[in-house]
Specification:
Blueprint (H helix, E strand, L loop, with lengths): L6 E5 L14 H11 L4 E5 L4 H7 L3 H4 L4 E4 L4 E4 L2 E5 L2 H5 L1 H16 L11 E3 L4 E3 L8 H14 L1 H12 L5 E6 L3 E6 L18 E6 L9 H5 L4 E4 L3 H11 L4
Length: 250
């Protein structure tokens, strides 16, 4: 086996290592740590907070096996299970502007008629505001129902367009987050933010695997960054197949 000691593989979570908001399969988990990690350094980079990432990795003991866990696009970073740094959107943007944005978002969502609406429409995270028209308290079936509806009616894209028009001078980026939400964060706090944390390791290559790589998707910037080699995937199974090919795993 050829060991590549100076190569880093970074992975999105939703749609890449797991189905949206689901737990990583035993097969892929075992493959990652038995076949991939012995060959390269591995890290996660997600818009989600640490608790959600841990849940999807089936426990903290699994998440801690990754060399890096970059939560909220890397604004919160863990190395080998230890919290190293964190930033705050509140300090960056300020309470007044955040409230104006949240009030606008709530008013916009109040006018939407969707197949279902549940609770937790606005989630405040360290690095971002996550806005969810269907509500993050929705069931898995309701999540999938909204996702199909959104593909047809572009609910989230129209929401992003309205936010961009309303707040053009706030220094914020509005992006489609995962399957059902919109991420709002300071410009530059996209997933490329995490690359600042690995510069000191001087990797020869940094590979990124993600599914939302189109313009407006939250993997777009890091997938297209000159510092990374981007791999667009369509599912966890596709991720595994691409890893087998990239690493010449028999």
């Amino acid at each position: 086996m050829s060991i590549q000691k100076n190569v880093l593989y970074l992975f999105d979570v939703d749609g890449t290592l797991t189905k949206p908001r689901q737990v990583i399969s035993e097969d892929l988990k075992n493959f990652m740590f038995e076949q991939v990690k012995p060959r390269v350094s591995v890290g996660l980079v997600s818009g989600s907070d640490y608790a959600k990432i841990v849940e999807q990795m089936s426990g903290e003991h699994v998440a801690n096996q990754f060399d890096y866990v970059f939560c909220e696009n890397g604004v919160v970073q863990y190395r080998n299970g230890e919290l190293k740094s964190t930033q705050s959107i509140l300090n960056q943007v300020g309470e007044t502007r955040l409230q104006k944005l949240i009030n606008f978002a709530l008013a916009h969502m109040s006018k939407l008629e969707l197949p279902a609406k549940r609770g937790n429409f606005v989630e405040f995270r360290s690095s971002m505001i996550n806005i969810c028209p269907v509500g993050r308290s929705c069931s898995q079936a309701e999540r999938e129902q909204f996702s199909k509806y959104d593909m047809e009616h572009k609910v989230r894209q129209k929401f992003v367009d309205a936010l961009k028009e309303q707040f053009p001078d706030y220094g914020l980026t509005f992006a489609l987050g995962g399957q059902i939400s919109v991420d709002v964060f300071p410009t530059g706090w996209d997933k490329t933010y995490c690359l600042n944390h690995v510069a000191d390791a001087k990797y020869d290559e940094i590979h990124f695997f993600g599914d939302k790589t189109e313009i407006g998707g939250n993997d777009y910037e890091i997938y297209n960054d000159a510092r990374t080699i981007g791999h667009k995937v369509t599912s966890p199974d596709d991720t595994k197949q691409q890893l087998i090919k990239c690493l010449n795993i028999a």
